[in-house]
Every structure is written in structure tokens, then in C-alpha cells.
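Sequence, please.
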């Protein structure tokens, strides 16, 4: 199964946060699943690091290395993803989450998230 992780899901996984349920962690480490991390997530984390809201061992380079070391796939942002954001209802106003939602729609991949606003869109959500 392909799974697109929301920013908090990858953050909790890489930091060993107990907020990440056991079933979610099992899905992430299951070698039969392909885990995608949006470039929007990388961008969001970089911004939050730059303003002091997040810290990761090794900074943004360490965060990206951890993603690569776990064999997760980086999901680039392309024109179709950007165009899909235009028609999204304004349920969620966070631009990073809106991009992840658009990518999930275009790529037809479920999103792993607990974000209640993401749940309101016509996409498959798992947790």
C-alpha cells in the first residue's frame, strides 16, 4: 500500500513520539508499504526550524537524511498538485496541509493523519 504521511506523522515517527499509535508505526515500517513524504512537509519543517518552533538532530539536513535512511519516498510538488489546490474547499487553510490533501487526491494515495480538518476532504485517511 502507498501511504502519504502528514507532517505530524513523520515527525512523531522519527522522534519516537508515543502519540503515534502502534498500528500507525507498524504501517510505516511494513516493508510491503511505500511511504511518501511530501516536499511540502520538508518545506514546513524547514520553516518551523528557522523560527525556532522545531528542532531535529542535525537540523533540516538531519531530518532529510532520516527520511532517506528510512527508504521513504519524497513526493515532489508538480503542476497537477498545485492546480488541484484551486478547487479544494476552504475547510483547511494551512497551505502545507492543503498541498498534502491535493497530492493525495491527484496521486490517489491515503494520508496518515489525525488532523480533523483533513478528515473532512474526499480522500482516504488512515491512522
Amino acid at each position: 500500500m502507498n501511504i502519504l504521511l502528514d507532517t505530524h506523522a513523520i515527525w512523531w515517527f522519527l522522534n519516537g513520539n508515543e502519540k503515534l499509535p502502534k498500528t500507525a508505526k507498524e504501517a510505516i515500517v511494513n516493508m510491503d508499504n511505500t511511504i511518501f513524504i511530501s516536499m511540502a512537509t520538508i518545506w514546513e519543517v524547514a520553516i518551523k526550524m528557522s523560527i525556532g518552533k522545531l528542532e531535529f538532530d542535525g537540523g533540516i539536513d538531519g531530518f532529510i537524511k532520516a527520511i532517506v535512511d528510512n527508504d521513504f519516498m519524497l513526493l515532489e510538488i508538480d503542476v497537477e498538485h498545485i492546480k488541484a489546490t484551486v478547487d479544494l474547499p476552504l475547510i483547511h487553510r494551512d497551505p502545507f496541509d492543503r498541498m498534502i490533501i491535493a497530492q493525495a487526491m491527484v496521486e490517489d494515495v491515503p494520508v496518515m493523519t489525525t488532523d480533523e480538518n483533513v478528515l473532512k476532504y474526499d480522500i482516504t485517511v488512515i491512522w
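The first strand starts at residue 2 and ends at 5.
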